[in-house]
């Protein structure tokens, strides 16, 4: 079945298929990401304004998500109302950890092995319903069975160059979840700022937290705020993946603790420019830098339950670079987690379970693949959303692709072309993105393309079908308050 039309897949049990098969709708449902298997049967189910929900044990987050959905649409919950929606826990290996089945016939039933699966079934139901409350609701009759193509469906937000307040991160998490994205990578440190409280090194935020790129916002997250964000993300089935960028991109840390730099006399204060690649921890002072790295990462690991911890590793040249990366990934391992490094880190002697994040489409990653590494795909000509929605969009970079990264380009990443990938992640660097509105404009609607690349099967991609479906979801983005770029390909 292709995204253009999935009207004639094999019938699912539980669905009444009395209608002639040729009557099946070919119009794709307005769903992004598009599910694996969709059967649409002519007819509708009317959802009443008062419903009863039956939820299985273990619907810890799916049921609250469903309740929020109903609240948004002014649908009341009542124990005495007809039982129109049910969440069911099943044991069906084919649905995996994140998959679900959504059947709409005489009522709505969502079944899954896990709370995550139920939660995603609720997200699909959300997209099938209108954005705004109305008198009553007509749902299409469908049988959807859906599992993701990739485990890693991510977005990176650079909160270091310019800070993003926790309220923004919370909305970002909600919006990502709506599109079944499940990894939010926070780039927490860079030359222009240090954004996470580290109890053992308070100057990192006192000094490093007070700077930002010129025109950008400074600030930092306290440990209490991080804990709250982690819980909020978890309720939306999103893992927050922290990055402490090492050993380069560290001016904010060097300005806070001068002894980490080789030149600790003239090694300078806070930085607010746009250069990259000029700062580094002093790799010839191992007795100073490694205890610091370990202590910082130990606090990060305390805060973030993510199995993977990103240690950066981009854009510096130093004879001791490979040794540093090898030691840093082993520190993460010793602390009980697994490291991620940007692709350059592949020159080090890393355990093969270290994930590499590919950003340069042309980087020779083959040797690392041969050693068994897996990739997070963020090739900049497709996935760098600090590049324009169109060529020469103001306040965007174009160093990686002079035509920018229009939606069609973002959607056209061939996720099967790079070898072993755990998934995809688009990146929003923030040197030139200083407000929530600007971030929304760079992220949306392109992040919906990331979502479909991550969730839908590789052979089912179809840009024209995608634009039709996403075009119809504009109201949902509006209802979430997203200040998206009005992409002409979507008819917006
Ligand atoms: C490259 S590619 C960077 C960032 C910049 C970005 C701007 C990579 C891992 N690092 O430091 O913010 O370009 O587009």
Automatic annotation (TrEMBL):
<dbReference type="GO" id="GO:0005975">
    <property type="term" value="P:carbohydrate metabolic process"/>
</dbReference>
<comment type="similarity">
    <text>Belongs to the glycosyl hydrolase 20 family.</text>
</comment>
<dbReference type="InterPro" id="IPR015882">
    <property type="entry name" value="HEX_bac_N"/>
</dbReference>
<feature type="region of interest" description="Disordered">
    <location>
        <begin position="8"/>
        <end position="28"/>
    </location>
</feature>
<dbReference type="Pfam" id="PF00728">
    <property type="entry name" value="Glyco_hydro_20"/>
</dbReference>
<dbReference type="GO" id="GO:0030203">
    <property type="term" value="P:glycosaminoglycan metabolic process"/>
</dbReference>
<dbReference type="InterPro" id="IPR015883">
    <property type="entry name" value="Glyco_hydro_20_cat"/>
</dbReference>
<dbReference type="Pfam" id="PF02838">
    <property type="entry name" value="Glyco_hydro_20b"/>
</dbReference>
<dbReference type="InterPro" id="IPR017853">
    <property type="entry name" value="GH"/>
</dbReference>
<feature type="active site" description="Proton donor">
    <location>
        <position position="315"/>
    </location>
</feature>
<feature type="compositionally biased region" description="Low complexity">
    <location>
        <begin position="17"/>
        <end position="28"/>
    </location>
</feature>
<dbReference type="GO" id="GO:0004563">
    <property type="term" value="F:beta-N-acetylhexosaminidase activity"/>
</dbReference>
<feature type="domain" description="Glycoside hydrolase family 20 catalytic">
    <location>
        <begin position="150"/>
        <end position="319"/>
    </location>
</feature>
<dbReference type="GO" id="GO:0016020">
    <property type="term" value="C:membrane"/>
</dbReference>
<protein>
    <recommendedName>
        <fullName>beta-N-acetylhexosaminidase</fullName>
        <ecNumber>3.2.1.52</ecNumber>
    </recommendedName>
</protein>
<keyword id="KW-0378">Hydrolase</keyword>
<feature type="domain" description="Glycoside hydrolase family 20 catalytic">
    <location>
        <begin position="320"/>
        <end position="457"/>
    </location>
</feature>
<dbReference type="InterPro" id="IPR029018">
    <property type="entry name" value="Hex-like_dom2"/>
</dbReference>
<feature type="domain" description="Beta-hexosaminidase bacterial type N-terminal">
    <location>
        <begin position="30"/>
        <end position="146"/>
    </location>
</feature>
<keyword id="KW-0326">Glycosidase</keyword>
<dbReference type="InterPro" id="IPR025705">
    <property type="entry name" value="Beta_hexosaminidase_sua/sub"/>
</dbReference>
């Amino acid at each position: 079945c292709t995204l253009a039309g999935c009207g004639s897949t094999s019938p699912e049990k539980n669905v009444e298929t009395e209608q002639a098969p040729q009557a099946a709708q070919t119009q794709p449902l307005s769903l992004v990401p598009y599910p694996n298997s969709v059967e649409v049967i002519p007819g509708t189910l009317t959802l009443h304004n008062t419903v009863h929900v039956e939820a299985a044990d273990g619907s810890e987050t799916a049921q609250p998500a469903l309740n929020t959905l109903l609240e948004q649409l002014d649908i009341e919950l009542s124990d005495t109302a007809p039982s129109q929606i049910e969440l069911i826990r099943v044991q069906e290996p084919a649905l995996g950890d994140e998959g679900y089945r959504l059947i709409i016939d005489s009522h709505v039933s969502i079944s899954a092995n896990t709370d995550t699966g139920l939660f995603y079934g609720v997200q699909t139901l959300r997209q099938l319903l209108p954005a705004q409350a109305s008198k009553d609701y007509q749902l299409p009759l469908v049988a959807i069975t859906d599992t993701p193509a990739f485990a890693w469906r991510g977005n990176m937000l650079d909160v270091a160059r310019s800070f993003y307040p926790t309220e923004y991160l919370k909305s970002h998490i909600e919006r990502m979840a709506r599109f079944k994205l499940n990894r939010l990578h926070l780039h927490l440190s860079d030359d222009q700022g240090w954004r996470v409280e580290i109890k053992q090194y308070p100057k990192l935020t006192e000094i490093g937290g007070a700077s930002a790129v010129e025109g950008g916002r400074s600030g930092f997250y306290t440990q209490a705020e991080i804990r709250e964000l982690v819980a909020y993300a978890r309720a939306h089935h999103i893992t927050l993946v922290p990055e402490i960028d090492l050993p380069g991109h560290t001016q904010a840390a060097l300005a806070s603790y001068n002894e980490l730099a080789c030149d600790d006399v003239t090694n300078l204060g806070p930085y607010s420019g746009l250069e990259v690649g000029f700062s580094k921890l002093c790799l010839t002072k191992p007795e100073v830098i490694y205890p610091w790295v370990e202590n910082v990462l130990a606090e990060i690991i305390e805060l973030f339950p993510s199995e993977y911890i990103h240690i950066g590793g981009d854009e510096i040249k130093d004879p001791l670079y490979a040794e540093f990366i090898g030691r840093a990934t082993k520190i993460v391992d010793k602390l009980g987690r697994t490291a991620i490094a940007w692709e350059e880190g592949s020159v080090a002697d890393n355990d093969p379970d270290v994930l590499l994040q590919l950003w340069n489409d042309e980087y020779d990653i083959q040797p690392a693949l041969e050693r068994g590494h897996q990739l997070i795909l963020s090739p900049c000509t497709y996935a760098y959303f600090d590049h324009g929605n169109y060529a020469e969009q103001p306040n965007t970079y174009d160093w990686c692709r002079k035509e920018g990264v229009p939606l069609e380009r973002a959607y056209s990443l061939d996720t099967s072309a790079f070898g072993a990938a755990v998934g995809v992640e688009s990146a929003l660097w923030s040197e030139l993105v200083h407000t929530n509105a600007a971030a929304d404009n760079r992220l949306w609607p392109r992040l919906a393309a990331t979502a479909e690349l991550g969730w839908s099967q590789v052979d089912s991609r179809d840009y024209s079908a995608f634009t039709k479906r996403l075009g119809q979801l504009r109201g949902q983005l509006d209802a979430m308050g997203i200040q998206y770029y009005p992409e002409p390909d979507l008819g917006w």
